[in-house]
Amino acid sequence: MDEKQGYFSLIQYSEYPERNEFLNVGIVLFSNAIPHVIVKLGESRSRIRKVFGVYPGKHFEILMHSMKDRIMSEFNSNWDRQSVEKFIGLRSGNIRLSSPKSVLVDADPNIVANELFERLVEPFEIREPIQRVQKKLKKQLVMSGVESLLEKPKPVSLPQGVVVKAQYAYQNGSYNLINAISLRDDPNIALAAAGKQAIEGLWLSEFDKGQKRLIVVGDVENQNSNFVNAVKDLMRMNKTEFYSLSDISPLAREIREHVTANDLSQSTSSSFLN
């Protein structure tokens, strides 16, 4: 067999399997290179709700992780196409696997799996909401008259292997990275998104000894106040500031005051030097 020859199978879910209508919720890549088997699961709950009219709860999560465990247990030592097809043929119920399709694994298998995942499983779940909330933040900053005062920061690579990306930045003693996230979904999903930002904010602060910090602006439309307040506390405990997208006036005021003050200070220093 060609060493670069691999196969992938889509993990698919249906609330009503008898209708034969399934959504792609994950992917399995079988490769001759290490790692030989990669399973990636998506966050497809909102799509399931839109298509089937129900919100998948804990049962969905259990089914997904059970399928992942079975795949990894079955193929942890070796695999071939016949064994993969046999395994797929035995699956039934709400979660199934599609027939294996050939794929060229001419790079790191993780890269190939990620590309397949983003193209076939969650092309909208990952990118579209981020773009939408970023546009909302830009609109709010423009309306507040401060968007033109902000910089476009470079991504920051942390020792933990995480790269912190942000939409805007400004200086006020620390270099503040401003990132927008959507927290409008189910509270369990929103909490995971908020927790990720809080951890990144803490690591960013520790990495640069307070020279950089993270500011998170969250779209919390339709979330209850208890959840929003808890997120603010979570961020604060992790040295990360949090603002609601519906009220960024405190953030806009801080940007205006500090950026203007910095510009004035630099201008004064230049006049003395001249």
How would you sum up this structure, described in words?
The protein has 274 residues and is of the alpha+beta class. Helices cover 44% and strands 21% of the residues. It has helices at residues 45-52, 58-74, 81-89, 109-120, 128-143, 187-207, 225-237, 249-273; strands spanning 5-13, 23-30, 37-41, 95-97, 101-104, 156-157, 163-164, 168-171, 175-182, 212-219, 241-244. Strands 1, 2, 3, 4 and 5 form a 5-stranded antiparallel sheet that branches. The protein has a 4-stranded mixed sheet with strand order 8-9-10-11, with helices on both faces. Strands 6-7 form a two-stranded antiparallel ribbon. The longest helix is centred in the last third of the chain and has 25 residues, at 249-273. The N and C termini lie far apart (72 Å).
